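Protein 1 of 2
SEQ + STRUCT:
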Amino acid sequence: MIEVAREFGDVIVAAPLNHQSGKASSITMAEPLRVIKKKEEPGLTVYAVNGTPTDCAKLGLGVLVGDRKVDLVLSGVNHGFNHGNSVLYSGTLGVVMESAMAGLPSVAFSYGDYAFDADFTQCLPIMRHVIGKVLANGLPKYVCLSVNIPKVDDGIKGMKMAVSAPGRWTNTWEHRVDPRGGDYYWMLGDYEEENPNDERTDFYLLRHGFATVTPIHIDQTDHDSMQAMQQMLGI
């Protein structure tokens, strides 16, 4: 991410000090946040924050950038997809939703490789294209982008707009026993798509070798059902 972002301008990084997967838009309220400057050189400053991804966004935009104008907020690259309903749990998406609330164009990138030493080479042209277009054209108010990039041996086929595949998580928990005989549970889970053959969804397109772009709006009001709910509740 830093390598590509520096091609477009100065970069300030605020990243979690520890692994923070599944933190969604959570924030730290009961303990102090601390910032460690990890690197500073012309055009790049890197900070580690002992908080959640959204803490990093809030602290970065509110404190660490100072009086500098922010043109774009980027999040990721996440190890593994943030597709389907994963956007509700993702700390990677929490960053861009927080930044969209601040009125800033924001893009999250996720890559379909969970390996610690994943090779992100396939992500670079996708990232360059999306970052360049968003910087040139902006995004609608309160809209951020979730970009998912597949790991494919024969090359990514291209990019397509996608809807988040509706569905639910099943087989979420695995029961295990520790060496002392105590029970514990480990989160796993399979995603059960409502319609696996829906060619509009991110799941379908990623399976077929396309990178996907999904616009996410921070307004979660279901405007289409408001009138029906008003009539049902008699209000």
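Protein 2 of 2
SEQ + STRUCT:
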Amino acid sequence: MKKTHTLLLIVFLLPRFAYAQDDLLGELEKNTPAPTYIAQTFKGSRLVNGHTVETTGAGTLEFIFAHRFGRLNGGAYELFGLDDAFVRIGLEYGVTGNLSVGVGRNSVDKTIDSYLKYKLLRQSQGGMPVTVTAFGSAAYQTSPRKEDAPEGFENSDRLAYTGQLLIARKFTSGFSLQLMPTIVHKNFVADNTGANDQVAIGVGGRVKVSRSVSLNAEYYYRVNPDTATPYKDALGFAIDIETGGHVFQIVLTNTRGMIERAFITETDGDFFNGDIHLGFNVTRAFQLKKRK
């Protein structure tokens, strides 16, 4: 009989105990402050040639126009590079606040590229020390034309893929650094131009000069270049100017490439020998969905 009374008592008290526990957890959650995330590690989605950890806001469509002139050491005959022009036109859309998708077309090698960016971790006050964004892209090179391609050259040979982890920390309101471990896979490589899989480590940063102006720098070190390759490490500097709805960047770099495959594995200019391309990146944002 005592066992029956004890069982009835447990059955009677169990819901009350569960309710009290839920109520206690609810109070603890209310008293636990939400993490304060660090915003605007960089002004835009591009550092110089490559990406930053920043993703496009949810429901925002960004139009990106990138332009590179010829080399400054081309002299007066080439108007110091202004006679030549290489462009990339692209779109990037924020599916969520952490996920962006993009597509673009490059005049260099007439390449079509697409990519995904996903913010895995966010720097916060007293918590996560860095922001980490995963980046993956695919590029399809339409040049040369089919009739001009070498014998045995397949359409699959035109494909290249890039995987990156973008790791950044905003140390102060005016200073940020980013590390970019990268692997580029190309289905086809010509003789003495590198392996199919090429590894690089990028490093870059931003120094804020004023409320709307900052200075950026970016360098990609190739870990396993072919000893006979004519290509160099990519180096670039930029001035970021934020003007309302868009970010304008003035660029100086030794590469005319504007996607990872091109500027990481196929940069043929020596920055310190004057093989410098003047250029710019213009980003314009359009809000397609109301922000919650």
